[in-house]
Each structure stands twice: as structure tokens, then as C-alpha cells.
Amino acid sequence: MRAVLLLILSLVMCTISPVLASSEILGVDEESSLSSLDGSGVVIAVADTGIDMDHSCFRNSTDEVGTPGPEHRKIIHLNDSIDDWDTQGHQQFKHGTHIAGILACDELEGDSGMRSLSHGAKLVVQDVVDSSGWVVPDDVTSLLAESSRYGAIINSWSWGDNTVNYTERSSMIDKWTVENPWSLVFVAPGNTGNTMLEPSNAYNVVSVVASDSNENGTLWSGNSHGPDVNGRRGTFIAAPGMDIVSAKADGTKFGMNNESYAMTGTSMATPMAASFTALLQELIQTEYGHAPSAPLLRAMLAASGESLNGGDPDSMQGYGRPSLKSFESGYIMHDSYATEDWVSLIESRGGTLESFTSNPWNGSGAVGPFLAENDSWSKLFQPIPGEDVEVVMSYNARPGGYEIDDLRLVVKTSDGRFAVDDQMSNSGFSQLYYGSFTNPLMMNSSNETTVMIRLPASQLEGVEWVSVEVVANDIYDGMNVGYLGLEGTRVGFGLVATGLQNFTQNTAPEITVIQGPAGGENYSDNFSINVNVLDMENDSYVLAIRLNNSNFTVDLSDCAAVLNHSSDVYCEIDISRDLVPRPVNREDWRFEIIVVDNNESIWTESKMTTYLSNNFSIYWVSPMVDYEEDVPIIEEEEGVEQNRALIWGIVGVIFGMVVAASIMFRGFEKRVLDNVPPPFREEE
Description:
Blueprint (H helix, E strand, L loop, with lengths): L11 E3 L28 E6 L26 E5 L15 H10 L17 E6 L1 E2 L2 E2 L6 H9 L4 E4 L10 H12 L4 E4 L18 E6 L25 E4 L3 E4 L12 E5 L1 H23 L5 H11 E2 L14 E2 L9 E4 L6 H7 L4 H6 L17 E8 L5 E6 L11 E8 L3 E4 L12 E2 L15 E6 L10 E9 L19 E5 L1 E3 L7 E6 L6 E2 L3 E8 L6 E8 L4 E3 L5 E3 L3 E7 L1 H4 L7 E12 L10 E5 L3 E3 L25 H6 L6 H18 L11
Parallel strand pairs: 2-4, 2-7, 3-4, 7-8, 8-9, 9-10, 26-34
Antiparallel strand pairs: 1-12, 5-6, 11-12, 13-14, 15-23, 16-22, 16-24, 17-21, 17-23, 18-19, 18-22, 19-20, 25-27, 27-31, 28-29, 28-30, 28-32, 32-33, 32-34
Helix pairs in contact: 1-4
């Protein structure tokens, strides 16, 4: 078993004037619209030196430690197969308790500065240190399998080997996360001030460097950082990691202690970023009702980043320091892996890496899409006036030895321009090109699997819509065709965007009858119908109302209208005016209402809605005669078909507006029934 060198050997211990990792720096404050987020409903796994369970941050009550389990206040599972406590005298004693406090401390008493951002979260604690030192299992996927069983997506690891190489452990993490997309590992890159150490160089982890907690923010000089040995950016995010106050272990099991102290290093920044991400997980679970995948959480974490030294993303700070303020004004997300119960799905495949590879998954039960080579996903959105647009897409990479799949992120605008992932200019924004200049897929692709496009509001003035597109440009040709995973041929992704809003793509008008004939009613006098038309776009519509039966149709010219907004429409039928001299007395009359909206966008079509009432009867006696008119009810003739165009052609006298309405209706009906041009010009 390889010797493990803890990444805090160069840890700076601060005992003078510690600076708290202010929640306000991460956008978590009372004025935030997201201030209620505290990690509730989230489980975080931490593998470290153990935990001082009787500490105020973790014990079950003021006077009871409690037994780890589903009902425990903080610790739903403790893996004590190696050791059962953060034990005094063991290597890096106190480290695990301090890390656990950053992740989920909810102190019952003592220093309020210990309270975690995600103090509502619960923990899976994996003690991997005993009297002989660090005994991390050779197969680290066993730790990840255990955390998945207890519902933990987020894993916090502040340790690794003293090597910059991409090791077997790095590869194991990537294998696991390709097979289990609901597993995200946060890893400390080390405190050497040089190239990041393993396993923070695994493709699918979040490697976290330390910053101070000042508003403007600076990076800690001791950070190990990217680029990594794989030629990738390496560093993913920066988080407060200097002078971080958290729980202090005392080494006793029943001391009921509540002490705190400060520590510095990437070991502190890593759980700080994991704690912040627990808030993102809670946000998705609350708003969308499902747990986010690791790719979606990575995309959101990157989108939340605020640059500390300009030029982000880069190998020193990654995407910068995260802040919830990025999502205060709203966001749009898509998660290919969205499913109701990911834990059961993982367990149904066996729950281990070996069982995953022998029981591949085709994506069933998730929303998708899962893209094969040359497949694409796209959706139209509307820019929010005055706001910059930022789109981030992330996906998992297969481990070293496989080519990295190439999913491209492309944003197109309604005026013919496009931007492609990670093509940033010196301004910090993506370069916009015209479609006549080049094909987006011909532009250089990085080997990064979290990519960004950022567009300034000034470049989007007058833009009606933007298309966000994910294209599977090059996907590994694996043995399991149509499946995901190591040998699969399909890949899912997570995507988040800010500065955009859902575009109402011309929904059909809605017709609601407020008052009108009910089925089986009999009318011997004039009658009416009152309807409400709801047009979501308010882009004008034509309304026509007619009475028909099995033999003929009567267009009610006085009830036709051209309207510019949603409204109520009242139509009164005068029998002597509207129906005579036709045969009036019959049992199979019904109302037909037709509404066609007037959308002129090149990417949509007109939408038509129809309403047909139940049959009703009319038995009317003309006031011009003094005897009861005995007009037989005409039986319905079989095989009679209605020709809408012919009927409209024989409508009687139609005055000004109604003529225009009829012409407009016929034009709209043709557009509804004919093929509509595609939203984008076809490329040769």
C-alpha cells in the first residue's frame, strides 16, 4: 500500500487575530434572496482523520453524543472499520474534526464563528487514520461506493500523495465518476506552491486552491496549482482557506467540548468549496425536485465564480471564488441525468465499480439527452436586457488511457453571429463570429470538460433570441453501443446559464367558455356565448365564431374580431337575423370557435386553437306569423363532409373588419397547415 503524505504538511497554523471566512464573501448573507439556503436535505461525505463526535458542532444534544444513524442530528453514518474517533496522538490529530466543522458544523454552544455555510447538512464520516498513520484504501472507489449508499453526492478529501503524476488513484476516481454521475469529489491540491499533487489532477474532480476572506480577495501563496501533468487547467475553483475558524477536537469521547481554532491551507479551502456546493445542491433539490448530477454541480460552481485576479478561468484560480450572487437574479439549467431516485438506480446496478462495468446503463429513467457522436441538443432563450450572458457546460471525462470526448458548447444569436466555448478575448468575454466566417466546430477545442461562453449585454442589444447548443463533436467508439459509462458511446452533460430567460415559443391561444349553451339545452329565443381568449405572447390574433350542424355552417360575422391582447369576447345570436331563412329548428346545433394567433417570428409558426361545444336544440317560432310554425327537424345525413374553405367562401355580407379578419384567418390557417421554414438557414 502506497504511503500517503497528507497535504497539510506545510500547513500554516494561525493563532493570532484569525479572520473568519465571511459568508458574505460567498454571497450568503441576510440580504440575499437565497439566504435561506443552509444545506438542508444534503449529505456530504468526508474521509479524513475522523471526528470528535462529542463536540458541540456534531453531538446529538447538549448532553448526549448519540449514535450515528439516520436519526442522528449530524452524522448519519460513521465508518469506524479503521478507527472510531479523531484520536489524540494519531497523525494530523484534529484535522478531520476541523474539516467536518467547515462542512456541517451547527454548534449547540460555543463560538458562532464555527458555524458552517451548510450547517443544515448531514455527514457520512470515513475515518482513514489509525495509530499507524493514514490507511486510505488502495481502491478508493470503496469510499465513494459507501458515500453513494448513504445519499452523498459531495465528497471532501483533503489528502493525497506527494507526486504530481496522474496515478492509479486518479484513474479510479475518473472511472467511478464516469459510471456514477452523482459523485463529485473535492480534492485539496497541496500546499507546495508548485504543481498540484494527486489525486487533485483527476479529470472529474474539483481541485480547490485557497484564498483569503477579503472582499477583493487574493490567492494564498502556498497553493499547489495547475496546469497539471495532463496539460489541463487543473485548478477548478478558489475558496477561502486562510485562517479558517472551525471545530477543535480534544481527543476525549465524553468531554462535550465546544472549542474552536483557525487553520490555513488548501485542506481548509476544499471543504469550504464543498460546503458552498451543498447550497447549490439544495437549491436544485428545492426548485426542481431532484438531486443534481456532478456535471451540473460543476457547471454551477464554475458559473458562480468571481475572478480574483482577472483573466479567469486560469490555472491559478480556476473560475475564481464562488458566490451565490451569480444566481440571485435567476438562472436556467439543464441536467441530462435528472432522475427521481439516483440512489436506487445506482444500487440497481450493483453499487460497485466492478458491477457498473458489467451492468452498463443506457440512461433510461433520466431526462437526457445522452449524445452520440454528431448528435446535438439546442434550445432557444431570450437575453435579459442589460445583463451579461454566461453559459457553462460540464461533462465527465473517461480516465487516462482514453481520448477525452469532445462536447462543444455553441451560442448563436438571431442576427447571425456565434460564440464557441473557451474562445475568450482579452476583455474576458467570448469572441463573436459571423456564420459566414467559419464553422463553429472547426475552431480549436481544448481538453477541458467544463467550458464557458460569456457575452456582454452591449453585444446583445436588439438580439431577439439566442440558441444554446451542445454538439457531440467526437465521442469514444466504445463496445457498449447506445450506453453510457467507460465503454459507452453516449455522453450526458450539465448546463447552467445566467442572463437568459425562457423564450415563450408561441404557445397556442387558450379558449375558456365563461357562459354558453350546455349540451341538451333548448332555445326558443335569442341566445349568446361568452368566451375568454388567452394569448401568452399578446402578439394579436383572429377570432371567428360559427354555428354549425351536420348539414351546413353559419358564420357569425358580427362576432369575428381581430384583437391585440387577451380578452373576453361576447357573442349574441339573433335567430331572425343570423339564422333565417335557413332551417332553424333542429337538435344538432353546436358552437365552433377558432382562434389563430399572429406570430411573425421566422423561427415559429402561427398556432390555432379550436373549441366545439356539445349539441343543443333550437325551436323557434317566427313573430311574423300567428300560428306555430311546424318545421321538421332535419335528420343528420351520413357521409356529409365539411369543407372549411368552401364554407368561408359562401359567407354572406361581411363588413370591413370582418373581411380583414377572414382574409387574415385564411392566411393564418394556411401557415398552420403548411410547412414552416426552419429557424436557421441550412448550412451546406
